[in-house]
Q: What sequence folds into this?
């Protein structure tokens, strides 16, 4: 009886894991400094993931760039320090962004800003459009209740880097004027490589 219960439990866990993996889409971010493979988590952050993938499918990031690097040394006025790189769409596409999306808080999704997490940049809550960032290291101050943003709402994490953290670090260490990469690191393309 116990053996059957264990087998059923293992089968259930395997089915849950397969369903979660089935709701991940992998994308390849091709940059001038190397590739980054990201798993986009549609199961936990469906609105944010769908928004990002719409920009990917429209090829809006092609010709865009990683334009911002945030390091412990270039944020002198911030008590809460973070380490991220931020990217945006092709400048020719600016002004044609999709409507801002609702903020999927980490308290709702269960996703956390750990090393390699991809998340949407924003100003106020419900204002994210196309810019995204990748955490270079764990950034709990970007989660719901974190102190980096005065509103305490955090940012919408929606996936994680599977391969290419060496490229992420290379981008972060690139030449910058303050937090602006000089020159920005070009995004050649972002494409789905698996998933829906």
A:
């Amino acid at each position: 009886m116990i053996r059957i219960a264990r087998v059923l439990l293992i089968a259930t866990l395997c089915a849950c894991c397969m369903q979660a993996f089935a709701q991940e889409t992998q994308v390849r971010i091709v940059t001038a400094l190397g590739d980054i493979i990201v798993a986009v988590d549609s199961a936990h952050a469906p609105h944010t993931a769908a928004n990002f993938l719409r920009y990917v499918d429209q090829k809006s990031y092609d010709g865009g760039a990683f334009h911002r690097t945030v390091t412990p040394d270039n944020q002198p006025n911030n008590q809460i320090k973070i380490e991220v790189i931020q990217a945006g769409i092709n400048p020719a596409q600016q002004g044609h962004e999709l409507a801002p999306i609702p903020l999927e808080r980490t308290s709702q999704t269960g996703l956390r800003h750990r090393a390699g997490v991809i998340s949407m940049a924003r100003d106020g809550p419900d204002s994210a459009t196309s810019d995204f960032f990748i955490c270079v290291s764990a950034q709990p101050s970007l989660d719901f209740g974190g102190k980096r943003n005065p509103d305490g709402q955090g940012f919408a994490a929606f996936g994680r880097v599977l391969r290419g953290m060496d490229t992420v670090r290379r981008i972060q260490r690139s030449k910058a004027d303050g937090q602006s990469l000089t020159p920005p690191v070009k995004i050649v393309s972002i494409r789905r490589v698996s998933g829906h």
